[in-house]
């Protein structure tokens, strides 16, 4: 038996931090959605009790540091599964990019092993399990579009945003999420995004208000640490994007465009500037699940 799962990348349309919590995490309020850039995960039964990971990507860990490995071990232990599994990750999402690549692989592994081992775990239970692996994992289990609160695990699912193009560019730097949150002074945030206004823009399919409302409070930390991310953002704005924002803790910056021609112009304009550039569609409607 083998199963395949798609693990899509997420972007944050808003990311607000309300305060730092006693447990060290930050209380967030953010709108997350998925884009059509995905890893493919193949899971096959193994005739011995082991978890084996492989990938065509030479730059990710293939041992217990891999989030897909951690997801497999968690579900095996929690549901007392004696079988082993072979997991192959066909990576397309750039790593340490702010696009939840590892989290989405972990979520896809939970979904896939639930099917492979016929465990009958509900979507809600998979999200609760996912929260043990990382703050972005519960959202990646279900996909779609959601307002995430708490440390990211409390999800309110909402309509998909209006269909548009998303041009993503990742500068060649690695950004640590813990470092960015660690350097944020939550009591001195200059400008908070208006999450409710953006949620309303999405509900009413008001693309221009959505673009105007994009905001991420982690930008002020990452942009000041890495001037190349600010340059990239400025470049996308100059090229005429409808809206531009850094995703998550960065360093990926995305541009929204309603017209394919404009998305192509931005994609071509960025290719000389940045090696990792992608022009993809927003995942909406029936395609919104990962
Ligand atoms: C930046 C985002 O990707 C936006 O979607 C998430 O908030 C982070 O999600 P993630 O990478 O799954 O984060 P985790 O693996 O849970 O946490 C990594 C580190 O980020 C910090 N962290 C994360 C989430 C949160 N709400 N507050 C935090 O302060 C913590 O220092 C934590 O040790
Ligand atoms: N399956 C995986 N795919 C990619 N990276 C992984 C995976 N498992 C573990 N990692 C490690 O996780 C770290 C973060 O990579 P990832 O691509 O998940 O970051 P990210 O997109 O910034 O995540 P997030 O947006 O959730 O903060 C990297 O250092 C990488 O080595």
From TrEMBL:
Keywords in alphabetical order: Kinase, Transferase
E.C. number(s) listed in UniProt: 2.7.1.148
Transferase is among the record's keywords: yes
Official protein name in the record: 4-(Cytidine 5'-diphospho)-2-C-methyl-D-erythritol kinase
Organism: Paenibacillus mesotrionivorans
């Amino acid at each position: 038996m083998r199963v395949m799962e798609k693990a899509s990348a997420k972007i944050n349309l808003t990311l607000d931090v309300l305060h730092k919590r006693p447990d060290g995490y930050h209380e967030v309020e953010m709108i997350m959605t998925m884009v059509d850039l995905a890893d493919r995960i193949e899971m096959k039964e193994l005739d011995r009790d082991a978890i084996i990971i492989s990938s065509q990507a030479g730059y990710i860990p293939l041992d217990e540091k891999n989030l897909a490995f951690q997801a497999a071990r968690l579900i095996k232990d929690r549901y007392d599964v004696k079988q082993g599994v072979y997991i192959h990750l066909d990576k397309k999402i750039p790593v340490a990019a702010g696009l939840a690549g590892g989290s989405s692989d972990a979520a896809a592994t939970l979904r896939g092993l639930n099917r492979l081992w016929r465990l009958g775990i509900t979507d809600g239970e998979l999200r609760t399990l996912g929260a043990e692996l990382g703050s972005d994992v519960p959202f990646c289990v279900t996909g779609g579009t959601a307002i995430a609160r708490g440390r990211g695990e409390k999800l309110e699912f909402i309509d998909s945003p209006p269909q548009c193009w998303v041009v993503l560019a990742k500068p060649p730097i690695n950004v640590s999420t813990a470092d960015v949150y660690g350097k944020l002074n939550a009591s001195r945030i200059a400008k908070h995004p208006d999450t409710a206004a953006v949620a309303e823009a999405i509900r009413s399919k008001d693309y221009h208000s959505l673009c105007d409302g994009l905001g991420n409070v982690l930008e002020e930390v990452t942009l000041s640490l890495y001037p190349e991310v600010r340059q990239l953002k400025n470049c996308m704005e100059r090229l005429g994007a409808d809206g531009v924002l850094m995703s998550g803790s960065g360093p990926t910056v995305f541009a929204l465009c309603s017209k394919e021609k404009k998305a192509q112009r931005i994609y071509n304009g960025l290719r000389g500037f940045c090696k990792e550039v992608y022009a993809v569609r927003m995942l909406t409607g029936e395609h919104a699940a990962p």
